[in-house]
Amino acid sequence: YERILELYFENYNDIGEKVQICLAIELMGKHSNIILYNVDGSNNRFAGEILGCMHNVGAEKSQIRELSGGLPYIYPPQKIKKDLLKTSFAFSKVILPERIAIAIER
To answer: Cβ(67)–Cβ(49) under 8 Å?
Structure first.
């Protein structure tokens, strides 16, 4: 995921247990968000449980994934894009307007 920055932290909870959390920063234009989620499933929480997020996203806003405290963190769906470095371009005829084609011939 090229547009997600994940920062992992280790800390201690109230009873002295070591916990791992992740701050995921999703850089996606108007859908950008910052999510804090549990990594290791400690502190009576399951692994991947969202602890909080900058923008809560409910079912009315997104049919693909919801983001709210207590829900599992799921990566956003990847868009299927062509890799421009591995794409070959075949240009056969370029259709030009008649006036431009005449000017090029002269």
So the answer is: no
Length of the chain: 106
pLDDT tens string 80-97: 777 777 776 555 455 555
Position 34 scores a pLDDT of: 93
CA 78, CA 81: separation in Å to the nearest integer?
9
Instruction: Render pLDDT for 43-76 as a digit per residue (tens, 0 to 9).
Output: 667 778 899 999 888 777 877 788 988 898 888 8
Please report, for residues 31, 91, 105, the alpha-carbon distance to residue 72 in angstroms, rounded to integers and kept in the order given.
18, 47, 64
For residue 57, the 8-state DSSP code is B
How far apart are alpha carbons 56 and 19 in whole angstroms? 24
The two counts, helices (H) then strands (E), for the chain are: 1, 4
Query: Which residues make beta-bridge pairs with 72?
Result: 49
**Residue holding tokens 């910052």?**
34
Report how far residue 51's alpha carbon sits from residue 72's, in angstroms, rounded to the nearest whole number: 9
